[in-house]
């Protein structure tokens, strides 16, 4: 086996290329995964443009290897790892807590102050490469019904599942999702699977038409949004005015869920929360939702495949990060590092 592999290395804002890098070794407690699919996320784009907050907080630095939405097959195990993982098809948690602090001990390792994030934070290399090394404890096995395409959609799906559950709606309820991007559409799919009537609001006619094609006839712009009572509103967008709009649109005693992040601070009048008796929930990370997302995909309760517009090779990563689009109308681009 070659001692090097191909990986996309981001060396600075809008600067990156496929390089030959050393093949990772399975350290004690870790495995090496042959990557079969990796999704490109909005976070990756922020690193590409240089806007990502972690770069300015010291949590990340160039050069770096992106990619935190992935699926593959375990090809090597380190000391102390069950050899039964060899040959298993897996995906993995992005958030790698230190497993010793108070937050980790309470089951909230995704909020660990010292956490690494695969392809994002703390120098932990990501999956836009032929191989990836991760702790064995972070793995989730994939059943036969969840192939590499679905497996690489588990991480964004876990975020969306948590947002949908936080909305607390079901049959007889009506929910509104602000922002029909990948996370917004996945959240809408999980809300619909829970029995809710789901509407989406966005800016782009193309994305709204795509949402309609997924079976969501209630896809609106702000100007056309009907005056309906919404029992829950999920902000999956990136505009600074959406958090306040969510509170304005939700029914009294309803719930607002915040999973989108704006590029600048957003303002929200907490008096409106109090006077409307609204519950507000923030969602960070897919970690607590990964296992149930795999189950939902495997059973067919949620089918996110239409969201993948195209699958391209590592050589196209730079163009994708720069905004070039290919394939269908879906919001997600997948990378197959084997191409």
Automatic annotation (TrEMBL):
Instruction: Output the PROSITE patterns linked to this UniProt entry.
Output: ADH_ZINC
**Taking every annotated instance into account, which residue ranges of this chain make up the domain Alcohol dehydrogenase-like N-terminal?**
28-144
**InterPro entries found in the cross-reference section:** ADH-like_C (IPR013149), ADH-like_N (IPR013154), ADH_Zn_CS (IPR002328), GroES-like_sf (IPR011032), NAD(P)-bd_dom_sf (IPR036291), Zn_alcohol_dh (IPR050129)
Required cofactor names = Zn(2+)
Q: What region holds the Alcohol dehydrogenase-like C-terminal domain?
A: 183-287
Write one Gene Ontology MF term. Answer: oxidoreductase activity
Instruction: Give the UniProt keywords, A-Z.
Output: Metal-binding, Oxidoreductase, Zinc
Highest taxon above the source species: Bacteria
Q: Which Pfam families match?
A: ADH_N, ADH_zinc_N
Similarity-based family: Belongs to the zinc-containing alcohol dehydrogenase family.
Q: What is this protein called?
A: Alcohol dehydrogenase
Organism ancestry: Bacteria, Bacillati, Actinomycetota, Actinomycetes, Pseudonocardiales
């Amino acid at each position: 086996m070659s001692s090097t592999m191909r990986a996309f290395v981001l060396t600075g804002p809008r600067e990156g290329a496929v390089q030959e890098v050393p093949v990772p070794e399975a350290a004690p407690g870790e495995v090496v995964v042959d990557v079969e699919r990796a999704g490109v996320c909005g976070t990756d784009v922020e690193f590409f443009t240089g806007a990502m907050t972690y770069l300015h907080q010291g949590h990340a630095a160039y050069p770096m290897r992106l990619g935190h939405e992935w699926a593959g097959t375990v090809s090597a195990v380190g000391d102390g790892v069950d050899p039964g993982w060899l040959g298993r098809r897996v995906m993995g948690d992005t958030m790698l807590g230190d497993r010793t602090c108070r937050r980790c001990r309470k089951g909230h390792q995704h909020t660990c102050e010292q956490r690494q994030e695969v392809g994002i934070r703390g120098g932990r290399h990501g999956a836009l490469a032929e191989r990836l090394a991760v702790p064995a404890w972070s793995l989730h096995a994939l059943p036969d019904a969840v192939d590499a395409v679905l497996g690489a959609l588990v991480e964004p799906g876990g975020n969306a599942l948590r947002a949908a559950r936080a909305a607390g709606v079901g049959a007889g309820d009506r929910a509104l999702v602000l922002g029909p991007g990948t996370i917004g559409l996945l959240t809408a799919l999980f809300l619909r699977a829970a029995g809710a009537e789901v509407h989406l609001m966005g800016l782009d006619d193309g994305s709204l038409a795509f949402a309609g094609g997924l079976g969501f006839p209630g896809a609106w712009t702000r100007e056309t949004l009907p005056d309906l009572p919404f029992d829950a509103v999920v902000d999956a967008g990136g505009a600074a005015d959406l958090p306040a709009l969510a509170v304005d649109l939700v029914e009294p005693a309803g719930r607002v869920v915040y999973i989108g992040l704006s590029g600048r601070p957003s303002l929200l009048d907490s008096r409106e929360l109090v006077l409307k008796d609204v519950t507000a929930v923030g969602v960070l990370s897919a970690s607590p939702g990964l296992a149930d997302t795999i189950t939902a995909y495997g059973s067919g309760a949620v089918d996110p495949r239409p969201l993948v517009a195209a699958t391209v090779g590592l050589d196209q990563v730079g163009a994708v990060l720069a905004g070039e689009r290919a394939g269908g109308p879906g919001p997600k681009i997948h990378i197959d590092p084997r191409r």
